[in-house]
Every structure is written in structure tokens, then in C-alpha cells.
Design goal:
Elements lengths: L1 E5 L3 H14 L4 E5 L2 H10 L4 E4 L2 E2 L2 E2 L1 H10 L5 E5 L4 H9 L4 E4 L4 H11 L8 H11 L30 H11 L4 H8 L3 H14 L5 H11 L11 H5 L3 H5 L3
Parallel strand pairs: 1-2, 1-3, 3-6, 6-7
Antiparallel strand pairs: 4-5
GO molecular function: DNA binding
Pfam families: GerE, Response_reg
Protein name: DNA-binding NarL/FixJ family response regulator
Length: about 250
Amino acid sequence: MRVLIVDDHELFRAGLALLLRELFPSIELLHASTLSQCMNHALGEFLNIVFLDLDLPDGNGCSALGRLKESRPSLPVIVISADESVETISQCIELRAMGYVPKSSPPEALHAAISAVLAGGVFLPAASIAKLRHDMGTEETSANGPGKAQPGGNSEMSTASGLGLSPREFETLAWLVRGLPSKAIALKMGLEDITVRKYVSHLLAHFNLRRRTELIVMLADKGIKLGVPPVTDPAHDRSLPAVERQRND
């Protein structure tokens, strides 16, 4: 597994690296202290996931996440930030972050968050989930949705049958959670774009939701894990039209 840590504080990068190596002894870690260095790695390296600080010398706020996902839409990104506002968390989800981990988290919580996201789950601060679901109007658990799980605490991987999905719908869900637009998902799965859009519509209907952002919050709330994000190829993202890379489905 290849992971990029992007933060301008060397001590924080070193601490996060220790936690990651504790979880995955064979993990390969890359480091960047600026958005420019991050982009150089992202555009030239095969990576499984990026941990991104929002407060960088050359990329402050959500603009850093936006630039990274515009260039590398298939690269899963987990934001790690001192900013704990629900507004910022919501904006990062809109920009296709796979999760959000506050820097104020104690080591145990950070450990649980890392375990969750590297297993294909979504991690959001527990204190923000209720507010996000209230704002989105999705407080009620879907009749078709899976049972309640402990966010970040459920060690078992979900399966298509366990979620009541077909294998193709499950695969679409996994790519959707990692931040891919429908065009990129279609290329990954060897399908037509319209077919993937139908799968996405089926997923939202299955969980009684309206938008991808609601789906991300629901998965974080229930602690659902969809499998380790595979290595992503920069060349694949470069092959996507710019308009498709920027579009939120």
C-alpha cells in the first residue's frame, strides 16, 4: 500500500507515519509539506490514498482539496485538519473527500479513523454527523439501509449481499465513495456512462437518499467498509476530459 501524507508540520507527519506503520507494517509512505509537492507526487506516483491537511503554505483551505481532486479524481483523499466546523466538513464532502479527521482527535480516535478509511470506509467526526444529517434531512434510517454500526469500530468488511446490492452496484458504490465521477467509474468498470448513472440512481433509491453527499454521510454514520482502495494510476486521470474531472455527479 502506498500512501501520501501532506502536512507542513514535520512532527505531525512523523506521528501519523508511526500510526500508519503500526497498522500496516509493510506500508510505503511518501511525504509532502506543500500543495506543490503534493501535486508532483499525485501526478507522477501510483498511490492508494492521500492524507491532506487543508492549511498549507501554498494551498489554504478547501481550494487545496479542489485542486487535487480536479487533477486526480480517482485518488481517494482523507482530509486531516484543525478546522472542525461543519461547514468545512460539508464542503470537503462536496469536493469528494473520502473522509475528514480532526487533528484534535485523541490517538485512539485517529487510529480508528485511519483503520476505517484504509479499509474503504468513510470517517467523519461523530459530533458532525448528526448536524450533517439534520441539514440534509436524512436523520431517519432508511428502511432499505443496513443496520446501525459503530462508526469506525466495526472491523468487518461489507459485502454486496449484506447491503442488499448486486455485485455491480456494490462495485459502483465503492468507486463512488472514493470520489470518482460517473465517467471515471464507467472507464474503471468497462461500462457505458449511462449504465453507471443508472447504478448510481439505484443506489440512492435503495438507501432512500437523493445525493452522493448524503450517501457519504450515511456510510460514515453506519461504519460501513467497502475494501482497501486500490492503487490509482495518474495516466487514467489524465485521460479524462477536463469538464468530466470537474463535474460533481
